[in-house]
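Quick question, first post here. What does this chain look like in 3D?
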Amino acid sequence: MGARQQLLLVWSVIGATVLTLSGCANAQQDVASHHFEVPKANLIAESDYPFFLPKSGDDGFIFILNPTAELRRQSSVLVQSRDKACARANGRGYVSQTICGSRDVEWRGQHWLKTGDDTFWTYSPSKSSGPAPFVSCFKMEVDGHSGLCYGTFAFGDLVLTISLNDDELPSLEGIYDRATKMLQSWEV
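> Answer (accepted):
Ran it through. Tokens below.
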């Protein structure tokens, strides 16, 4: 092999390596005073956000807890500033009742009380100081879904809105713990 061919081979290998590594690179996300290097495999691009979620990187980002799982079994987590989420809630709604008060409502280790009907329902911790729903659900007409739910939880000065299937409620503590461990491992 001639010198020109060797040089082309070396540059081809370098180019392929750069392309491979850039596909696996992390994306920096800033929320409140936190800086995260989120693996692109876990990150949902802002261009793919539903219309009702924040678009500015400073307002939050969404990541997938289990990106290799079947699509209907994936859980997403919206990460936002707690101060901004509470300012938007402006004293109204369940977010104000659950994460914006002077004390966090204890939800770990509680039994969940279900209220609502078979189309829309909520779950509240059994020993909460009022009927503050932590998890809201709605019926899904798709095989494998008993209902699609989301819960909003405090994590220091951040808010995590976690999506899950209704049948995953007994695993919510583990899902929350996994989300917080991932965020801690990504913080720089």
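Confidence is low (pLDDT under 50) at residues 2-23.
The chain has four helices and ten strands.
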